[in-house]
Fold this protein.
Amino acid sequence: MFKGMRRRIARVITGLMLCMVLMPAFAVYADPAIDDAKKKRDETQDQLDEVNATLEELAEEKAGIEDEIDEMDDALAEVLGSVEALRIQTENKEAEIYEAELRYDEAVETERNQYEAMKVRIRYMYEQGDKTYLALLMESKGFADMLTKADYIEELYEYDRNMLASYQDTVKEVDELRTQLEEERLELLALTAEYEQEQAYMEGVIEELKSVAADYRSRINKAKAKAGEYARLIAQQNKEIKRLEEEEKKRKAEEARKKAEEEARKRQQAQESLGDAPETNRVSNGNNTFDVSVIYNSKGSQLGKNIAAYGCKFIGNPYVPGGTSLTNGCDCSGFVFSIYKDFGYSVPRTSYSLRGAGKEVSASNAEPGDVVCYPGHVGLYIGGGMIVHASTQKTGIKVSYMNYRTPITIRRII
Protein backbone atom coordinates (compact mmCIF):
# COMPACT_ATOMS: atom_id res chain seq x y z
CA MET A 1 0.00 0.00 0.00
CA PHE A 2 2.80 2.39 0.89
CA LYS A 3 4.57 1.56 -2.38
CA GLY A 4 1.42 2.50 -4.31
CA MET A 5 1.10 5.75 -2.36
CA ARG A 6 4.72 6.64 -3.13
CA ARG A 7 4.10 6.08 -6.82
CA ARG A 8 0.95 8.22 -6.69
CA ILE A 9 2.77 11.03 -4.87
CA ALA A 10 5.60 10.86 -7.41
CA ARG A 11 3.11 11.13 -10.27
CA VAL A 12 1.39 14.13 -8.63
CA ILE A 13 4.72 15.91 -8.09
CA THR A 14 5.74 15.18 -11.69
CA GLY A 15 2.39 16.54 -12.90
CA LEU A 16 2.76 19.68 -10.83
CA MET A 17 6.28 20.28 -12.14
CA LEU A 18 5.05 19.80 -15.71
CA CYS A 19 2.23 22.30 -15.07
CA MET A 20 4.72 24.82 -13.70
CA VAL A 21 6.78 24.47 -16.88
CA LEU A 22 3.82 24.65 -19.25
CA MET A 23 1.68 27.26 -17.47
CA PRO A 24 3.74 30.32 -18.60
CA ALA A 25 3.51 29.14 -22.19
CA PHE A 26 -0.24 28.75 -21.94
CA ALA A 27 -0.62 32.02 -20.02
CA VAL A 28 1.11 34.08 -22.68
CA TYR A 29 -0.18 32.15 -25.67
CA ALA A 30 -1.43 34.41 -28.35
CA ASP A 31 -1.02 34.85 -32.07
CA PRO A 32 2.44 36.50 -32.49
CA ALA A 33 1.24 38.34 -35.61
CA ILE A 34 -1.63 39.94 -33.65
CA ASP A 35 0.67 40.85 -30.75
CA ASP A 36 3.18 42.41 -33.12
CA ALA A 37 0.45 44.33 -34.98
CA LYS A 38 -0.98 45.63 -31.69
CA LYS A 39 2.48 46.62 -30.47
CA LYS A 40 3.10 48.61 -33.65
CA ARG A 41 -0.37 50.15 -33.38
CA ASP A 42 0.31 51.18 -29.78
CA GLU A 43 3.65 52.68 -30.79
CA THR A 44 1.93 54.67 -33.53
CA GLN A 45 -0.73 55.77 -31.02
CA ASP A 46 2.03 56.99 -28.68
CA GLN A 47 3.53 58.97 -31.57
CA LEU A 48 0.10 60.42 -32.39
CA ASP A 49 -0.47 61.38 -28.75
CA GLU A 50 2.93 63.09 -28.70
CA VAL A 51 2.13 65.03 -31.89
CA ASN A 52 -1.28 66.03 -30.50
CA ALA A 53 0.37 67.27 -27.30
CA THR A 54 2.81 69.30 -29.42
CA LEU A 55 -0.12 70.67 -31.41
CA GLU A 56 -1.79 71.87 -28.21
CA GLU A 57 1.41 73.59 -27.08
CA LEU A 58 1.94 75.23 -30.47
CA ALA A 59 -1.69 76.38 -30.59
CA GLU A 60 -1.39 77.94 -27.12
CA GLU A 61 1.88 79.68 -28.01
CA LYS A 62 0.46 80.89 -31.34
CA ALA A 63 -2.62 82.24 -29.56
CA GLY A 64 -0.30 84.11 -27.16
CA ILE A 65 1.61 85.65 -30.10
CA GLU A 66 -1.65 86.67 -31.77
CA ASP A 67 -2.82 88.29 -28.53
CA GLU A 68 0.44 90.27 -28.44
CA ILE A 69 -0.12 91.31 -32.07
CA ASP A 70 -3.64 92.49 -31.20
CA GLU A 71 -2.33 94.48 -28.24
CA MET A 72 0.43 96.04 -30.37
CA ASP A 73 -2.11 96.83 -33.09
CA ASP A 74 -4.28 98.64 -30.53
CA ALA A 75 -1.28 100.58 -29.19
CA LEU A 76 -0.16 101.38 -32.75
CA ALA A 77 -3.64 102.64 -33.56
CA GLU A 78 -3.39 105.03 -30.60
CA VAL A 79 0.04 106.23 -31.78
CA LEU A 80 -1.24 106.70 -35.33
CA GLY A 81 -4.17 108.66 -33.93
CA SER A 82 -1.78 110.84 -31.96
CA VAL A 83 0.42 111.39 -35.03
CA GLU A 84 -2.61 112.39 -37.08
CA ALA A 85 -3.81 114.74 -34.34
CA LEU A 86 -0.34 116.33 -34.15
CA ARG A 87 -0.25 116.66 -37.93
CA ILE A 88 -3.57 118.50 -37.86
CA GLN A 89 -2.39 120.69 -34.98
CA THR A 90 0.85 121.43 -36.88
CA GLU A 91 -1.09 122.35 -39.99
CA ASN A 92 -3.33 124.64 -37.93
CA LYS A 93 -0.28 126.12 -36.25
CA GLU A 94 1.35 126.74 -39.62
CA ALA A 95 -1.85 128.43 -40.77
CA GLU A 96 -1.77 130.64 -37.67
CA ILE A 97 1.89 131.43 -38.37
CA TYR A 98 1.01 132.32 -41.94
CA GLU A 99 -1.71 134.67 -40.70
CA ALA A 100 0.73 136.16 -38.17
CA GLU A 101 3.28 136.66 -40.95
CA LEU A 102 0.68 138.53 -42.98
CA ARG A 103 -0.28 140.64 -39.97
CA TYR A 104 3.39 141.29 -39.25
CA ASP A 105 4.12 142.37 -42.78
CA GLU A 106 1.03 144.58 -42.74
CA ALA A 107 1.97 146.10 -39.39
CA VAL A 108 5.54 146.72 -40.54
CA GLU A 109 4.21 148.34 -43.70
CA THR A 110 1.79 150.50 -41.70
CA GLU A 111 4.57 151.50 -39.29
CA ARG A 112 6.85 152.35 -42.18
CA ASN A 113 4.16 154.41 -43.92
CA GLN A 114 3.36 156.25 -40.69
CA TYR A 115 6.99 156.92 -40.06
CA GLU A 116 7.51 158.17 -43.58
CA ALA A 117 4.45 160.44 -43.39
CA MET A 118 5.56 161.77 -40.07
CA LYS A 119 9.05 162.42 -41.44
CA VAL A 120 7.59 164.29 -44.37
CA ARG A 121 5.46 166.49 -42.17
CA ILE A 122 8.23 167.14 -39.67
CA ARG A 123 10.74 167.83 -42.42
CA TYR A 124 8.31 170.14 -44.11
CA MET A 125 7.65 172.12 -40.96
CA TYR A 126 11.31 172.31 -40.06
CA GLU A 127 12.31 173.30 -43.59
CA GLN A 128 9.77 176.16 -43.68
CA GLY A 129 10.99 177.20 -40.28
CA ASP A 130 9.46 180.16 -38.46
CA LYS A 131 8.02 181.48 -41.65
CA THR A 132 5.61 178.69 -41.92
CA TYR A 133 4.59 178.90 -38.32
CA LEU A 134 4.43 182.72 -38.59
CA ALA A 135 2.39 182.59 -41.78
CA LEU A 136 0.04 180.13 -40.20
CA LEU A 137 -0.34 182.26 -37.11
CA MET A 138 -0.67 185.55 -39.15
CA GLU A 139 -3.49 184.08 -41.04
CA SER A 140 -5.32 183.78 -37.76
CA LYS A 141 -8.29 186.10 -37.43
CA GLY A 142 -7.67 186.76 -33.81
CA PHE A 143 -5.73 185.80 -30.81
CA ALA A 144 -8.06 182.96 -29.98
CA ASP A 145 -7.81 181.64 -33.49
CA MET A 146 -4.09 181.90 -33.30
CA LEU A 147 -4.01 179.86 -30.09
CA THR A 148 -6.27 177.30 -31.64
CA LYS A 149 -3.98 176.90 -34.63
CA ALA A 150 -0.95 176.64 -32.39
CA ASP A 151 -2.68 173.86 -30.40
CA TYR A 152 -3.61 172.16 -33.64
CA ILE A 153 0.00 172.12 -34.80
CA GLU A 154 1.06 170.66 -31.47
CA GLU A 155 -1.70 168.05 -31.51
CA LEU A 156 -0.86 167.03 -35.03
CA TYR A 157 2.72 166.44 -34.02
CA GLU A 158 1.67 164.53 -30.92
CA TYR A 159 -0.77 162.48 -32.97
CA ASP A 160 1.95 161.46 -35.39
CA ARG A 161 4.20 160.40 -32.54
CA ASN A 162 1.41 158.42 -30.83
CA MET A 163 0.42 156.68 -34.03
CA LEU A 164 3.99 155.72 -34.74
CA ALA A 165 4.39 154.32 -31.21
CA SER A 166 1.12 152.42 -31.60
CA TYR A 167 2.21 150.88 -34.90
CA GLN A 168 5.58 149.96 -33.38
CA ASP A 169 3.81 148.22 -30.50
CA THR A 170 1.63 146.34 -32.97
CA VAL A 171 4.69 145.20 -34.88
CA LYS A 172 6.31 144.02 -31.65
CA GLU A 173 3.20 142.13 -30.50
CA VAL A 174 2.77 140.45 -33.87
CA ASP A 175 6.45 139.55 -33.97
CA GLU A 176 6.26 138.03 -30.48
CA LEU A 177 3.13 136.08 -31.51
CA ARG A 178 4.88 134.89 -34.63
CA THR A 179 7.88 133.73 -32.57
CA GLN A 180 5.61 131.95 -30.06
CA LEU A 181 3.69 130.19 -32.83
CA GLU A 182 6.93 129.07 -34.43
CA GLU A 183 8.15 127.65 -31.12
CA GLU A 184 4.87 125.82 -30.69
CA ARG A 185 5.13 124.47 -34.24
CA LEU A 186 8.64 123.20 -33.54
CA GLU A 187 7.41 121.51 -30.36
CA LEU A 188 4.62 119.84 -32.35
CA LEU A 189 7.11 118.67 -34.96
CA ALA A 190 9.42 117.26 -32.26
CA LEU A 191 6.52 115.46 -30.60
CA THR A 192 5.39 114.14 -33.98
CA ALA A 193 8.90 112.81 -34.63
CA GLU A 194 8.84 110.97 -31.28
CA TYR A 195 5.48 109.40 -32.08
CA GLU A 196 6.70 108.46 -35.56
CA GLN A 197 9.74 106.75 -34.02
CA GLU A 198 7.43 104.86 -31.66
CA GLN A 199 5.23 104.01 -34.64
CA ALA A 200 8.22 102.64 -36.56
CA TYR A 201 9.28 100.58 -33.52
CA MET A 202 5.78 99.15 -33.05
CA GLU A 203 5.46 98.33 -36.73
CA GLY A 204 8.80 96.50 -36.54
CA VAL A 205 7.68 94.54 -33.47
CA ILE A 206 4.38 93.66 -35.16
CA GLU A 207 6.21 92.43 -38.25
CA GLU A 208 8.43 90.27 -36.05
CA LEU A 209 5.42 88.88 -34.20
CA LYS A 210 3.65 88.19 -37.49
CA SER A 211 6.73 86.34 -38.70
CA VAL A 212 6.76 84.26 -35.49
CA ALA A 213 3.02 83.60 -35.85
CA ALA A 214 3.57 82.52 -39.46
CA ASP A 215 6.29 80.14 -38.26
CA TYR A 216 3.88 78.70 -35.68
CA ARG A 217 1.24 78.26 -38.38
CA SER A 218 3.78 76.41 -40.51
CA ARG A 219 4.79 74.17 -37.60
CA ILE A 220 1.15 73.56 -36.71
CA ASN A 221 0.33 72.62 -40.30
CA LYS A 222 3.26 70.21 -40.39
CA ALA A 223 2.20 68.71 -37.04
CA LYS A 224 -1.39 68.36 -38.30
CA ALA A 225 -0.13 66.63 -41.43
CA LYS A 226 1.96 64.27 -39.29
CA ALA A 227 -1.02 63.62 -36.99
CA GLY A 228 -3.12 62.83 -40.05
CA GLU A 229 -0.48 60.36 -41.24
CA TYR A 230 -0.42 58.67 -37.83
CA ALA A 231 -4.23 58.57 -37.67
CA ARG A 232 -4.41 56.97 -41.13
CA LEU A 233 -1.68 54.51 -40.16
CA ILE A 234 -3.57 53.60 -36.96
CA ALA A 235 -6.73 53.04 -39.00
CA GLN A 236 -4.78 50.73 -41.31
CA GLN A 237 -3.19 48.95 -38.35
CA ASN A 238 -6.59 48.51 -36.65
CA LYS A 239 -7.93 47.11 -39.90
CA GLU A 240 -5.01 44.67 -40.08
CA ILE A 241 -5.49 43.70 -36.42
CA LYS A 242 -9.18 43.08 -37.07
CA ARG A 243 -8.28 40.93 -40.07
CA LEU A 244 -5.78 38.92 -38.04
CA GLU A 245 -8.26 38.53 -35.18
CA GLU A 246 -10.92 37.34 -37.62
CA GLU A 247 -8.45 34.82 -39.02
CA GLU A 248 -7.53 33.75 -35.47
CA LYS A 249 -11.22 33.47 -34.61
CA LYS A 250 -11.83 31.35 -37.69
CA ARG A 251 -8.79 29.22 -36.88
CA LYS A 252 -9.98 28.63 -33.32
CA ALA A 253 -13.50 27.94 -34.56
CA GLU A 254 -12.07 25.42 -37.03
CA GLU A 255 -10.01 23.81 -34.26
CA ALA A 256 -13.10 23.70 -32.03
CA ARG A 257 -15.12 22.21 -34.88
CA LYS A 258 -12.48 19.57 -35.53
CA LYS A 259 -12.24 18.84 -31.82
CA ALA A 260 -16.02 18.52 -31.57
CA GLU A 261 -16.03 16.25 -34.64
CA GLU A 262 -13.28 14.16 -33.09
CA GLU A 263 -15.16 13.87 -29.81
CA ALA A 264 -18.35 13.05 -31.69
CA ARG A 265 -16.42 10.45 -33.69
CA LYS A 266 -15.11 8.91 -30.50
CA ARG A 267 -18.60 8.85 -29.00
CA GLN A 268 -19.92 7.34 -32.19
CA GLN A 269 -17.18 4.73 -32.21
CA ALA A 270 -17.84 3.93 -28.55
CA GLN A 271 -21.57 3.66 -29.14
CA GLU A 272 -21.17 1.73 -32.41
CA SER A 273 -18.86 -0.71 -30.66
CA LEU A 274 -21.73 -1.49 -28.28
CA GLY A 275 -24.92 -0.83 -30.23
CA ASP A 276 -28.20 -0.26 -28.48
CA ALA A 277 -27.93 -3.73 -26.95
CA PRO A 278 -25.32 -6.39 -27.87
CA GLU A 279 -26.81 -9.36 -29.70
CA THR A 280 -24.89 -11.74 -27.46
CA ASN A 281 -25.46 -9.66 -24.32
CA ARG A 282 -21.76 -10.18 -23.59
CA VAL A 283 -18.60 -8.06 -23.93
CA SER A 284 -15.15 -9.58 -24.14
CA ASN A 285 -11.64 -8.42 -23.27
CA GLY A 286 -9.18 -11.18 -23.99
CA ASN A 287 -10.08 -14.08 -21.73
CA ASN A 288 -12.52 -11.89 -19.76
CA THR A 289 -16.19 -11.80 -20.75
CA PHE A 290 -19.13 -10.11 -19.08
CA ASP A 291 -22.86 -10.44 -19.61
CA VAL A 292 -24.17 -6.89 -20.10
CA SER A 293 -27.81 -7.91 -20.17
CA VAL A 294 -28.03 -6.72 -16.58
CA ILE A 295 -27.19 -3.25 -17.88
CA TYR A 296 -29.73 -3.13 -20.68
CA ASN A 297 -32.43 -4.73 -18.52
CA SER A 298 -32.09 -1.93 -15.96
CA LYS A 299 -33.99 1.32 -15.96
CA GLY A 300 -32.22 4.42 -17.22
CA SER A 301 -31.16 6.27 -20.37
CA GLN A 302 -29.72 4.49 -23.39
CA LEU A 303 -26.61 6.72 -23.22
CA GLY A 304 -26.03 5.81 -19.58
CA LYS A 305 -26.37 2.11 -20.42
CA ASN A 306 -23.90 2.49 -23.30
CA ILE A 307 -21.42 4.22 -21.00
CA ALA A 308 -21.74 1.44 -18.41
CA ALA A 309 -21.39 -1.30 -21.07
CA TYR A 310 -18.37 0.53 -22.55
CA GLY A 311 -16.70 0.48 -19.14
CA CYS A 312 -17.24 -3.31 -18.92
CA LYS A 313 -15.16 -3.75 -22.13
CA PHE A 314 -12.01 -3.04 -20.09
CA ILE A 315 -12.60 -5.60 -17.35
CA GLY A 316 -9.32 -7.33 -16.56
CA ASN A 317 -7.06 -4.41 -17.57
CA PRO A 318 -4.49 -3.30 -14.97
CA TYR A 319 -4.79 -0.79 -12.16
CA VAL A 320 -2.02 1.85 -12.30
CA PRO A 321 -1.90 4.61 -9.66
CA GLY A 322 -2.33 8.02 -11.34
CA GLY A 323 -3.04 6.37 -14.73
CA THR A 324 -5.80 7.25 -17.17
CA SER A 325 -5.25 4.63 -19.90
CA LEU A 326 -8.15 2.21 -20.16
CA THR A 327 -5.87 -0.35 -21.82
CA ASN A 328 -2.46 0.20 -20.26
CA GLY A 329 -3.61 1.02 -16.78
CA CYS A 330 -5.56 3.56 -14.73
CA ASP A 331 -6.67 4.23 -11.19
CA CYS A 332 -10.31 4.44 -10.03
CA SER A 333 -10.91 8.11 -10.87
CA GLY A 334 -8.77 7.82 -14.03
CA PHE A 335 -11.08 5.01 -15.15
CA VAL A 336 -14.26 7.09 -14.69
CA PHE A 337 -12.56 10.17 -16.18
CA SER A 338 -11.46 8.32 -19.36
CA ILE A 339 -14.80 6.51 -19.86
CA TYR A 340 -16.71 9.79 -19.83
CA LYS A 341 -14.02 11.54 -21.89
CA ASP A 342 -14.47 9.00 -24.70
CA PHE A 343 -18.16 9.96 -24.74
CA GLY A 344 -17.31 13.69 -24.94
CA TYR A 345 -17.92 14.59 -21.28
CA SER A 346 -15.47 16.33 -18.96
CA VAL A 347 -15.61 15.17 -15.33
CA PRO A 348 -13.23 15.86 -12.41
CA ARG A 349 -10.04 13.82 -12.30
CA THR A 350 -9.97 12.92 -8.58
CA SER A 351 -12.29 10.75 -6.53
CA TYR A 352 -12.73 13.58 -4.05
CA SER A 353 -13.81 16.06 -6.75
CA LEU A 354 -16.16 13.53 -8.35
CA ARG A 355 -18.26 13.68 -5.16
CA GLY A 356 -19.50 17.11 -6.32
CA ALA A 357 -19.95 16.36 -10.04
CA GLY A 358 -23.38 16.27 -11.69
CA LYS A 359 -26.32 15.85 -9.33
CA GLU A 360 -26.88 13.48 -6.43
CA VAL A 361 -29.34 10.55 -6.68
CA SER A 362 -30.36 7.99 -4.11
CA ALA A 363 -29.14 4.39 -4.21
CA SER A 364 -32.66 3.19 -5.00
CA ASN A 365 -32.77 5.49 -8.05
CA ALA A 366 -29.29 4.65 -9.34
CA GLU A 367 -29.06 4.01 -13.11
CA PRO A 368 -26.32 2.59 -15.34
CA GLY A 369 -23.61 5.23 -15.95
CA ASP A 370 -24.00 6.92 -12.53
CA VAL A 371 -20.80 7.48 -10.51
CA VAL A 372 -20.71 5.74 -7.14
CA CYS A 373 -18.41 7.53 -4.68
CA TYR A 374 -16.75 5.89 -1.66
CA PRO A 375 -14.16 7.24 0.79
CA GLY A 376 -11.08 7.50 -1.49
CA HIS A 377 -12.64 5.46 -4.31
CA VAL A 378 -15.16 5.66 -7.21
CA GLY A 379 -16.82 3.30 -9.70
CA LEU A 380 -19.49 3.18 -12.46
CA TYR A 381 -22.91 1.74 -11.63
CA ILE A 382 -23.97 -0.88 -14.22
CA GLY A 383 -27.34 -1.96 -12.77
CA GLY A 384 -28.38 -4.99 -10.72
CA GLY A 385 -26.71 -3.44 -7.67
CA MET A 386 -23.25 -3.74 -9.24
CA ILE A 387 -20.40 -1.43 -10.27
CA VAL A 388 -17.45 -1.69 -12.64
CA HIS A 389 -14.30 -0.07 -11.27
CA ALA A 390 -10.52 -0.01 -11.25
CA SER A 391 -10.25 -1.74 -7.91
CA THR A 392 -6.66 -2.45 -6.84
CA GLN A 393 -3.25 -3.20 -8.36
CA LYS A 394 -3.89 -6.85 -7.55
CA THR A 395 -7.33 -7.20 -9.15
CA GLY A 396 -7.28 -4.40 -11.81
CA ILE A 397 -10.58 -3.42 -13.46
CA LYS A 398 -13.42 -5.63 -12.30
CA VAL A 399 -17.12 -5.86 -11.37
CA SER A 400 -18.20 -5.68 -7.73
CA TYR A 401 -21.42 -5.31 -5.82
CA MET A 402 -22.13 -1.62 -5.10
CA ASN A 403 -22.55 -2.23 -1.39
CA TYR A 404 -19.23 -4.04 -0.94
CA ARG A 405 -18.47 -0.73 0.81
CA THR A 406 -20.84 1.94 1.97
CA PRO A 407 -21.17 4.67 -0.71
CA ILE A 408 -20.86 8.30 0.33
CA THR A 409 -22.88 9.62 -2.60
CA ILE A 410 -24.11 8.63 -6.09
CA ARG A 411 -23.71 11.27 -8.86
CA ARG A 412 -25.58 11.43 -12.20
CA ILE A 413 -23.47 13.09 -14.86
CA ILE A 414 -25.83 12.87 -17.88
About this structure: The longest helix spans residues 143-274. Residues 34-239 form a domain with the Helix Hairpins fold (CATH 1.10.287.2610). The beta strands are 282-285, 288-291, 324-325, 329-330, 359-361, 371-374, 377-383, 386-392, 396-401, 409-412. The helical segments are 2-27, 32-138, 143-274, 293-296, 302-312, 332-342, 351-354.
